[in-house]
Design the sequence.
C-alpha cells in the first residue's frame, strides 16, 4: 500500500484559516481519467489517479487522494521527517482575536479529544549524539579532565565519520527546514555509530583508565569479584548510556556480550561499551509510554525516564544529568511542581541557549546566504561593491549579526516578537559589516550600538536577508521568504508555463521596475500572486542594495561595469500582510510594524518551534493543543525564550501517540 | 584470449583531461587479479558513472551534432521513424568538434573516444516537471512542485536507478570486493532509495552524498587489518540489540517497527562491509592530498578540478573493484563561465536570449571538456582482452532540462562506453517523430522541438545494460523506469497528442532497449 501525503488543492494550503491568503489558482481536476493523464501509477489499471483527491477550497483541510494497490514494496513520503504528516498548511479552525491593527489574529483550535499522529522512532540528531557521547565520557571517567581529553582525542576520528545533519527538504519546504527534521537513516549513521562504539570501548578500557571506568575490581588480582564487577558496570554505565535502568534481561544480554571470559578482560568490557553505544536506546528516543491517555486512543503518557530524556534533549541537546535522572528514579519528575522546577533549572543553564540558537538559525535559514566574495572578479560586481568588496569573512559576519540579534533579544534583554521586528540596535561585530550599517562594531559586552534612526528597523533589514552575492537585489525571493518563513503563509503554485522569467538590470530600470515589468504585467497569470503576495513584501526593503547598504538610489551599470546612471528606489507598497488589507507602507519601518501587529509571526513561530521540537511537520488539525499554548505564551508581553518553557509544559510534550 | 599484462599504462589512467593526478600506485596485484585473468572480451561486469548538470537551456543546434549525420532510419512504428548515424567530428584548429558544446582538444577528444560515444536526441519526460534533481536517475517525484503536474508526481517517489542497481543481485551477484555499493559524490541530492533498501520498504529517502573526494576515498580504500582479532566483531551483538527491542513485548508504533527494520537492514550492510574487501584492496595506497571540496572558486579551473577529483576517486574505485557505481551531482555551470551574477535568473532562465544562450553554451562546452570527457579519458586505458575500462563502463551526462529551462523535451543524453559490450557506440541517435506535426512544439526561443521517446525508456535501457532485468525494476504494471504520468498542459509541448495516454505504445514499450543502441 502506498502511503500518500495529504495534498491540498491550489490555494487551499493556507496556514491559518482566519488569515487565509488567496492567490487561488484553478483547482486541479480530481476526476480520474478526465484529462487522459491518469498514469495508473501505483495500482496500475485500477483507474487510480495520481493526485486526484485532495482538492479543497481555500482554508479547508484537504484530504488525501486515493491510490491503488501497489504491486510491490511500498513507497512512502519522500524525504520528509519520518513522522511528517505531509499535509502542508492544513488549516486550523482556531478562533480569532483582534490585533493592534484591527485585523484578526490567528490562533489554533485545541481539541483534547483529537489524538496527534502516531510517532516513529526518532533518531538523535548528530549534535545530540555527539553531546551524549561527550557527557558519557565525562561520566565514565568521573570528570577527570586529562583522561577525558585522551579519550576524546581517541574517538575524534570516529565521531567525525558521522554525517552532519542537514536542513531536511520536506514536501512543504524543499529548500530545507530544520536539521532536527533530518530523520533519514543513512548507512553512514550506522557505520559511524559502530565506529564510535568500538573506538570508545577501546579508549575507555585502556589500562590507564579502566580502573576509573569500571572500578578497581577490573584491575585487581582477585577473580572472585569479577562477576559482580561486570554486573555493576553493566547496570551503572548501561543506565547512563541507554538512559533508563536496565532490566535483568538487559543485564543478561550485555553480560553475554562480555562472554564467558573468566578474568576481567578489558577487550570484553570494550565490546560491552561498543554494543551499548550502537544500541537502539543510544541512537533513538525509544519510548513505550506508560498510562493511557483517557479519550485519546493509542496515546500514552511518557514514563518518568522517557520524559526526562525528552526534556533534556529538547533543552540541552544531550542526555539527562544526575539531578534529572534522580527525579526520574524516584518518579518525582511526574509531579508537576518538580517538573516545573526542572524546566526552570534546565532553561537557566547556558546549554538551552545553544538549542534556541540552532532553532533560530534554521528557522531563518542563515546558511542559505551565498558566498559573498565568489564574484569579486566580475566587472559589474566590482564596480557595484566599490570599496565594500566582500572578503571571505563577511558572510559569517552577517550570520553572526543575526544570531547575535536573536541571542540579545532572547537572553540578554529578553524581548518578544515586537522587539525582534523593530529593534534598531546593531549586533555587527565585524568592522566591514559595521561599516555597511554605518555604526561602530559591537564589542559583544556593552550595549549594542544604535543604528541610524528609522533606517534599518528589525530583523528583516539585516544584511543577511538582503545580500545576494551578486549586484542585484532579489525582491521576489525576499518577498517569498517573508511570506512563507516569517508569516507561514502559503503561496499558490507558480502557474504552469511560468518560466520564472528573471529580474534583470536593464539600462534605465531599477530592479523593482524590472520585476514589475516581468511579473506584474496586467492580465498575466503571474501578476495574481506576485503583485499581491510576493513582490510588495520584497519591495519594501529595496532601499538596501545587495550588500545590505542603505540607499536612496540604485546605481545602474552596463555589462562592463561602467556606471550608466542612478535612479531613485521606490519602497512603497501594499504588502497585504493580511490578505486583502489595503494598508500601504512607505518602506521597511512601516512594514515591520504591520507584520508585528498582525500576530502572524507568533503563530508562525509556534508552528516552527513545533517542527523543531517534534522533528515533524505540524498538522494544525491535530496539533492545535501543542501549538496554541506556545502561541499564546509568546504573544503580547511574552518573550522569545518562552518558546522553551511553553512547549515543554504542554500535554503534548508529555505524551506519545502509537496509533 | 590471453590477458595482457599492463605495464605502460599503470599510472596513465590516473591522468585525466584536467591534468590531475592522484598519488595512488596501481599495484601489479591489482591488475593481475585472477578472477578475470583469461577473460574473453566483455565478460567484465559493467560499471556506471553518471554526472548531472543543472538547468539545460542550450539550443539544440548547439547541443546536438548535425542532423545531417542521420543516415540510417528505422520504422519504429508505422508513423514514427527513428534515425541514427555515425558520429563524424570535424576539426577546428586544435579541437575536435561534434557540436558547439561537444567539442574539445583533439589531443584528448580522439577519434577513438568519439567512436565510444553516443549522443541521444529526443528523450522526453512527458509532463511539466520544472526544476528537479530527480529526473536524471528516475525519481521524478523530486521536483519543486512548480505546477500541478510536478506536484502530482511528488506523491510517487521512486528509488533512483543507481540504487536499484546497487541493491540488485543481478548487478552485484558478488559483493565480495565492494566497499560502497554506490559512490554518491557532490553535495546536492541526486540519489534516493527506500529507507530499507534490502526489503524495498519504508519511505523514499535521499542518499546523502559527500562533497569531499577525500572522504569518498577513505570509504573505498580501507587498509586491511592483517592481525588476528582476539574477539569476534560485535556487529552480531549490535544486531541482536535491535532484534531484542523489536521482538520484545513492549509497546511500539508501526513506525517504530519500520524504523527498527530499516536499521537492522543497515546493520546487515555494515556486517557485509566489515567482512568484505580482502580481495578488493589495492594494497597500501597513498591518499590524495587534494580534496574536491576545496575547489569552489567561481572559475573554470576550480570547477574542472573539483569534478576531476571526484572522477579520480570513481575511476580508481572502478579499477580496484571497490565500487561499480558512481554518481556526481554537479550544480549549475556558472563557474565554468566565471559568471559574476545570478546564473539561475540572469542566464539559465534567459536561455532564449542571445547573450545568456552563449554563456550557457560556453559553460556546457567547458563542462564537457574538463569534467565529463575527463572521466571518459581516465577510463579509456586497457583493462583486459583488448578492451578498456571505458569499454566496460557506461559514462553518462544528463541535464536537468531540455532546451527550455523548466522543460523536459529532448533531455540531452551524452554517453561514453559500451557497458561491457551491451551497447553499440559512436552514434548520434534521433528518437524524435519528425514527420508528424502533432509531435512538434515551438518554444519561446531556439528552434522547433519535436517529441520522441520516453526518458523512462532510456533509464530502462541503462538498467538492462547493467544486467538488471525488467522484473527487478518495473512497477505498477508499467514498463520503463520512472513514473508513468502524462501531462496535459495546453500551453507547452504537445505531450498529450504525441504520447496519447499512459497505455499507449510509448509507455507499453518503455522497457524495450532503445532503437540503435543494442550491440
Sequence:
Amino acid at each position: 500500500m502506498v502511503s500518500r501525503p495529504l495534498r491540498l488543492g491550489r490555494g487551499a494550503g493556507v496556514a491559518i484559516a482566519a488569515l487565509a491568503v488567496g492567490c487561488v489558482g484553478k483547482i486541479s481536476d480530481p476526476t480520474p481519467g478526465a484529462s487522459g493523464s491518469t498514469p495508473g501509477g501505483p495500482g496500475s489499471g485500477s483507474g487510480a489517479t495520481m493526485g486526484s483527491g485532495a482538492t479543497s477550497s481555500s482554508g479547508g483541510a484537504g484530504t488525501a487522494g486515493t491510490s491503488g494497490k501497489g504491486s510491490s514494496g511500498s513507497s512512502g513520503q519522500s524525504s520528509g521527517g519520518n513522522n511528517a504528516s505531509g499535509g502542508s498548511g492544513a488549516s486550523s479552525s482556531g478562533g480569532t482575536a483582534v490585533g493592534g491593527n484591527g485585523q484578526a489574529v490567528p490562533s489554533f483550535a485545541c481539541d483534547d479529544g483529537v489524538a496527534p499522529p502516531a510517532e516513529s522512532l526518532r533518531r538523535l540528531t548528530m549534535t545530540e549524539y555527539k553531546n551524549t557521547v561527550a557527557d558519557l565520557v565525562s561520566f565514565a571517567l568521573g570528570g577527570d579532565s586529562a583522561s577525558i581529553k585522551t579519550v576524546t582525542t581517541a574517538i575524534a576520528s570516529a565521531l567525525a565519520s558521522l554525517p552532519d545533519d542537514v536542513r531536511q527538504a520536506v514536501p512543504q519546504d524543499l529548500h530545507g527546514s530544520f536539521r532536527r527534521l533530518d530523520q533519514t537513516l543513512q548507512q553512514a549513521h550506522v557505520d559511524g555509530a559502530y565506529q564510535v562504539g568500538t573506538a570508545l570501548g577501546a579508549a575507555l578500557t585502556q589500562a590507564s583508565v579502566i580502573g576509573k571506568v569500571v572500578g578497581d575490581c577490573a584491575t585487581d588480582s582477585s577473580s572472585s569479584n569479577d562477576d559482580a564487577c561486570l554486573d555493576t558496570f553493566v547496570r551503572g554505565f548501561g543506565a547512563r548510556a541507554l538512559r533508563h535502568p536496565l532490566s535483568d534481561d538487559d543485564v543478561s544480554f550485555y553480560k553475554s556480550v562480555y562472554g564467558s571470559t573468566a578474568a576481567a578482560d578489558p577487550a570484553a568490557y570494550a565490546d560491552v561499551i561498543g554494543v551499548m553505544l550502537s544500541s537502539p536506546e543510544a541512537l533513538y528516543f525509544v519510548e513505550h509510554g506508560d498510562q493511557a491517555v483517557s479519550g485519546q486512543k493509542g496515546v500514552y503518557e511518557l514514563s518518568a525516564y522517557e520524559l526526562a530524556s525528552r526534556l533534556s534533549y529538547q533543552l540541552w541537546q544531550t542526555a539527562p544529568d544526575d539531578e534529572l535522572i534522580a527525579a526520574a528514579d524516584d518518579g518525582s519528575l511526574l509531579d508537576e511542581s518538580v517538573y516545573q522546577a526542572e524546566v526552570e533549572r534546565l532553561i537557566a543553564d547556558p546549554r538551552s541557549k545553544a538549542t534556541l540558537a540552532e532553532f533560530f538559525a534554521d528557522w531563518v535559514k542563515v546558511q542559505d546566504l551565498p558566498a559573498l566574495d565568489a564574484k569579486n572578479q566580475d566587472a559589474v560586481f566590482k564596480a557595484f561593491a566599490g570599496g565594500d568588496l566582500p572578503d571571505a569573512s563577511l558572510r559569517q559576519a552577517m550570520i553572526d549579526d543575526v544570531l547575535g540579534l536573536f541571542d540579545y533579544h532572547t537572553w540578554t534583554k529578553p524581548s518578544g516578537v515586537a522587539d525582534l521586528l523593530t529593534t534598531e540596535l546593531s549586533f555587527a561585530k565585524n568592522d566591514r559589516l559595521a561599516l555597511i550599517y554605518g555604526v561602530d562594531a559591537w564589542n559583544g559586552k556593552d550595549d549594542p550600538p544604535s543604528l541610524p534612526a528609522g533606517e534599518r528597523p528589525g530583523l528583516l533589514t539585516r544584511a543577511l536577508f538582503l545580500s545576494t552575492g551578486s549586484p542585484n537585489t532579489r525582491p521576489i525571493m525576499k518577498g517569498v521568504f517573508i511570506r512563507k518563513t516569517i508569516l507561514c503563509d502559503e503561496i499558490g503554485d507558480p502557474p504552469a508555463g511560468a518560466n520564472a522569467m528573471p529580474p534583470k538590470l536593464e539600462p534605465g530600470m531599477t530592479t523593482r521596475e524590472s520585476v514589475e515589468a516581468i511579473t506584474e504585467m496586467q492580465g498575466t497569470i503571474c501578476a495574481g500572486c506576485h503583485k499581491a503576495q510576493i513582490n510588495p513584501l520584497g519591495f519594501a526593503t529595496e532601499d538596501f542594495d545587495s550588500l545590505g547598504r542603505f540607499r536612496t538610489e540604485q546605481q545602474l551599470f552596463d555589462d562592463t561595469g561602467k556606471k550608466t546612471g542612478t535612479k531613485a528606489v521606490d519602497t512603497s507598497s501594499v504588502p497585504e500582510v493580511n490578505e486583502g488589507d489595503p494598508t500601504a507602507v512607505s518602506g521597511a519601518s512601516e512594514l515591520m510594524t504591520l507584520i508585528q501587529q498582525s500576530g502572524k509571526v507568533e503563530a508562525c513561530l509556534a508552528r516552527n518551534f513545533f517542527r523543531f521540537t517534534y522533528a515533524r511537520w505540524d498538522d494544525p488539525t491535530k496539533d492545535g493543543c501543542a501549538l496554541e499554548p506556545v502561541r499564546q505564551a509568546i504573544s503580547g508581553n511574552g518573550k522569545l525564550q518562552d518558546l522553551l518553557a511553553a512547549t515543554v509544559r504542554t500535554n503534548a510534550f508529555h505524551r506519545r501517540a502509537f496509533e | 584470449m590471453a590477458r595482457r599484462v599492463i605495464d605502460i599504462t599503470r599510472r596513465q589512467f590516473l591522468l585525466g583531461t584536467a591534468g590531475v593526478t592522484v598519488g595512488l600506485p596501481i599495484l601489479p596485484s591489482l591488475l593481475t587479479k585472477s578472477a578475470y585473468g583469461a577473460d574473453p572480451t566483455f565478460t567484465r561486469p559493467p560499471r556506471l558513472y553518471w554526472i548531472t548538470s543543472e538547468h539545460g537551456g542550450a539550443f539544440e543546434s548547439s547541443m546536438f551534432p548535425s542532423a545531417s549525420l542521420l543516415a540510417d532510419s528505422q520504422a519504429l512504428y508505422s508513423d514514427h521513424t527513428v534515425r541514427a548515424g555515425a558520429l563524424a567530428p570535424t576539426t577546428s584548429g586544435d579541437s575536435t568538434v561534434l557540436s558547439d558544446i561537444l567539442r574539445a582538444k583533439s589531443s584528448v577528444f580522439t577519434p577513438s573516444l568519439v567512436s565510444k560515444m553516443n549522443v541521444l536526441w529526443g528523450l522526453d519526460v512527458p509532463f511539466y516537471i520544472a526544476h528537479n534533481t530527480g529526473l536524471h536517475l528516475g525519481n521524478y517525484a523530486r521536483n519543486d512542485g512548480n505546477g500541478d503536474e510536478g506536484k502530482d508526481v511528488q506523491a510517487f517517489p521512486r528509488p533512483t536507478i543507481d540504487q536499484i542497481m546497487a541493491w540488485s543481485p543481478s548487478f552485484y551477484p558478488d559483493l565480495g570486493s565492494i566497499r560502497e555499493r554506490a559512490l554518491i559524490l557532490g553535495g546536492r541530492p541526486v540519489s534516493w532509495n527506500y529507507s530499507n533498501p534490502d526489503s524495498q520498504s519504508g519511505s523514499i529517502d535521499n542518499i546523502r552524498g559527500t562533497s569531499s573526494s577525500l572522504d569518498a576515498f577513505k570509504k573505498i580504500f580501507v587498509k586491511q587489518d592483517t592481525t588476528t582479532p582476539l574477539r569476534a566483531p560485535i556487529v552480531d551483538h549490535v544486531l541482536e540489540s535491535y532484534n531484542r527491542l523489536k521482538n520484545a513485548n513492549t509497546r511500539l508504533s508501526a513506525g517504530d517497527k519500520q524504523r527498527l527494520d530499516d536499521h537492522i537492514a543497515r546493520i546487515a550492510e555494515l556486517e557485509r562491509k566489515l567482512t568484505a574487501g580482502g580481495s578488493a584492496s589495492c594494497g597500501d595506497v597513498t591518499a590524495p592530498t587534494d580534496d574536491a571540496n576545496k575547489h569552489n572558486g567561481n572559475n573554470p579551473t576550480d570547477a574542472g578540478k573539483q569534478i576531476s577529483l571526484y572522477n579520480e576517486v570513481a575511476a580508481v574505485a572502478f579499477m580496484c573493484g571497490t565500487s561499480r557505481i558512481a554518481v556526481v551531482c554537479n550544480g549549475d555551470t556558472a563557474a565554468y563561465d566565471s559568471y559574476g551574477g545570478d546564473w539561475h535568473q540572469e542566464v539559465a532562465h534567459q536561455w532564449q536570449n542571445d547573450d545568456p544562450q552563449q554563456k550557457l553554451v560556453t559553460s556546457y562546452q567547458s563542462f564537457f571538456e574538463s569534467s565529463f570527457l575527463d572521466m571518459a579519458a581516465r577510463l579509456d586505458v586497457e583493462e583486459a582482452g583488448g578492451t578498456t575500462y571505458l569499454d566496460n563502463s557506461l559514462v553518462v551526462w544528463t541535464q536537468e532540462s531540455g532546451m527550455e529551462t523548466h522543460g523536459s523535451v529532448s533531455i540531452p543524453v551524452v554517453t561514453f562506453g559500451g557497458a561491457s559490450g551491451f551497447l553499440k557506440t559512436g552514434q548520434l541517435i534521433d528518437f524524435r517523430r519528425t514527420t508528424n506535426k502533432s509531435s512538434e512544439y515551438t518554444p519561446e526561443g531556439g528552434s522547433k522541438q519535436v517529441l520522441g521517446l520516453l526518458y523512462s525508456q532510456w533509464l530502462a535501457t541503462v538498467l538492462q545494460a547493467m544486467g538488471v532485468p525488467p522484473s527487478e525494476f518495473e512497477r505498477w504494471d508499467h514498463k520503463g523506469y520512472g513514473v508513468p504520468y502524462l501531462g496535459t498542459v495546453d500551453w507547452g509541448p504537445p505531450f498529450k497528442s504525441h504520447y496519447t495516454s499512459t497505455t499507449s505504445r510509448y509507455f507499453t514499450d518503455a522497457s524495450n532497449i532503445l532503437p540503435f543502441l543494442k550491440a
